[in-house]
Amino acid sequence: MDGREWSRHTYEDLAERALRAGAALADAGVRRDEVVPLVLPSGPDFVACFFGLLAIGATPSVLPLPAALQDAAGYETQIRAIAAAVRPRFAIASDDHRDALLAGVHQAGQQTTVLAPSYGDAGTVPRAHGELAVLQFTSGSLGRPQGVRITVDNLAANLRMIQRWLGITERGGVSWLPLYHDMGLIGGLLTLVTLQTEHAMMRPEQFVRDTRGWLAEYGHGRYAQIFMPNFGFERVVDRVTPDDLVGLDFSGVTSVVSGAERINPAALARFAALLQPHGFDSGALTPAYGLAEGTLAVTGVPRHERVRMVRTNAPGRSLDDKVEVTDKAVLTTDLVSEPWAWQVSCGRPLEGLRVEVVGEDGQPRPDGVFGEISVQGPSVTAGYAGATSADGTRLVGGWLRTGDAGFFHDGDLYVVGRLGDSVKLRGRSIFVEDVELDLRARTGIAPRNLAVAGGIVDGRPTLLVVVERELGNQPDVVVEAVRTFTGSAVRVLILRARRGTIPLTSSGKPRRRLLWRRHLAGQLTGEWLGDPPPPSRTDTDTDTDQQNREAGREPVAR
After folding, report:
1. Closest among 160, 202, 199 to 178, alpha carbons compared
2. With contact defined as beta carbons under 8 Å apart, do 413 and 346 qualify?
3. How far apart are CA 145 and CA 473, in angstroms?
4. From CA 303, how far away is CA 167, in angstroms rounded?
5. Which end of the chain has the lower number of beta carbons within 10 A, N or C?
6. Counting beta carbons within 10 angstroms of the beta carbon of residue 551, is it exposed (0 to 12), middle (13 to 18) or buried (19 or more)?
7. How high is the pLDDT of residue 435?
8. Residue ranges of E strands in 259-398
9. pLDDT value at position 554?
10. Taking 60 as the threshold, does the pLDDT of residue 411 lie above it?
């Protein structure tokens, strides 16, 4: 989409454009296996430069646009870390983003030539096959984004898995997802382009500005696939009314993939309820689990199967606990009470992958036992560029230990949250994702305006709740919700802060460990509701941080 108008390109046109871009890059001096960062908005230039680099055997690395992060200083910090890891001789950027990219690169002491998209003679491109298909940077929740090495074989394997899983044929989708994130790049672009399906691209800001217009493209019956995180579903149901859907038909939508974060059953149910009177089948809902180190997708609900949910016994969990399932349901258009208590199935391992849940000793556990998710298979990363991951995700004996916690039930994987985003209470882990889901349901606060972080302060477990909107008389509701999980043993701090206080990853998730560290350093400002924080803030670690240090690993967070 260009402005408010769609521009159309055939695959023949795009192939020619990619070869011409590759020729120009080779003429500029880019060589095989060089990593070349791209800072380009979604559009034909991006597609041409990405595939142009692959054509000459170079490695594209897609970086966020400056507007994706909250402040210029934060963007320069991220680019500096990436430049230090990659040390690129060349980068590609649009004129609008060239200066911001150079500022971060120069801070890393790197002399990088920034090229604008340009096109040469397609007949002169030096065709080559590089080792890596992409260097995919993680979100950088600790301020140190990690470069995940995705080989050509990794990418090809995962694309085949996704295409077989979803049964994608001639109809693609309308993707607005940012291309610097794995769901946007792999799911929203490469999965569909490599099949040469009919496919459309919007920029993220266009989706935010014209959510109704994005949905209308599906309602005209041309597109079948949707890839979207919780934020997208919540945006749709908040901005689109039933009157906006008159005359639209959503019976052609065959898969709605959600899986960039802990899946909120209420968000999916409200989305399905909005579209159902216009032909949408809630059986198209397709929750999944994946991560950059797995290229993208790891598990998914099989096509034509209804999504299962289970209600579990307690909010506190420890590795190796047996999970007591107290109720079962199928995800439909009905809203559930206490959404934090319901786990949405993320399906089964995609063909060619092995997925296990392992305990404290690293050994696999059977169905119904809580542990760390571990993955092995042809789409798992070849490793990291530079230092290993600092967020708990690591390669051990040929397996990817994800740092994510969950369990299997009746063969389906249920993902609970990040081990590093939990707080230990009487030997059990309280996962802040559970607390956030419940708080959002009770208060109606949007995900980007509410975050929970925690740790130990003066020897006492503490949960910090930061909200970026007025709470009115709701502080008591917040405390009551937190006490549902913790009882009275945990100190609850509530900060009403200005918008932009909650640091976000480039994929839009809260950087909880950074938020917690800023709290400990006294860097958060706003109105403390209820009891203010104690003056002494000497303990900086969560219990999980300490356990990882003892095991010789970095503190974990994402």
Report:
1. 202
2. yes
3. 39
4. 8
5. N
6. exposed
7. 87
8. 285-290, 297-300, 308-312, 316-317, 325-330, 342-344, 348-349, 354-358, 371-376, 384-385, 394-396
9. 34
10. yes
For the segment 458-471, what is each residue's pLDDT rounded down to a tens digit? 888 899 999 998 88
Six-digit token string for 467: 């909200």
Q: What is the pLDDT of residue 364?
A: 96
* CA separation for the pair 166, 389 (Å, rounded): 30
Three-class DSSP category at 420: helix
The residue assigned the tokens 């009403």 is 496
HSE-up of 524 (CA within 13 Å, CB side)?
Answer: 29
DSSP, collapsed to helix, strand or coil, labels residue 505 as coil
For 243-275, what is each residue's pLDDT tens digit?
Answer: 999 999 999 999 999 987 788 888 899 999 999
Angle in degrees, CA 294, 299, 300, rounded to 5: 135
pLDDT at residue 179 tops 50: yes
Q: How far apart are the first and last CA of the chain?
A: 32
Q: For residue 120, is pLDDT > 80? A: yes
Q: What does the pLDDT read at residue 555?
A: 33
Q: Tell me 117's DSSP state.
A: P
Over its C-alpha atoms, the chain yields an Rg (Å, rounded) of 23
Mean pLDDT for the stretch of residues 357-374: 94
269-to-145, 190, 346 alpha-carbon distances in Å: 34, 28, 15
Determine phi and psi for 345, rounding to 5 degrees.
-60, 135
Contact status, residue 267 vs residue 234, Cβ threshold 8 Å: yes
Average pLDDT over residues 409-437: 85
Q: What is the pLDDT of residue 551?
A: 37
Computed from CA positions of residues 257, 263, 265, 267, in that sequence, does the dihedral angle turn out positive or negative? negative
The answer on pLDDT for 216 being more than 80 is yes
Model's pTM, two decimal places?
0.86
Query: 496: left (phi > 0), else alpha (psi -120 to 50), else beta?
Result: beta
Among candidates 538, 454, 546, which has minimal Cα distance to 493? 454
> What are 288's two structure tokens?
């999944």
